[in-house]
Give the backbone structure.
Amino acid sequence: MENTNSTDDAFAARRARFGALPERIRYEDMVEEKEATPDDPARHTHDPEGSWRFYSCLAVDLGL
């Protein structure tokens, strides 16, 4: 059986080292609601002139 005095001492040492837990944050304070932007169909069109920017090739990346 553990000594109550040593338990209290351990509690006091933890409290002195770490302090108290921060206050709980309400869910309403963690969530930010924003209005969604309308879908822009031009964003999904294919651009042959700019398509090279999204090309991925390991040999090119390594400079081979």
In short: The chain has a mean pLDDT of 81.
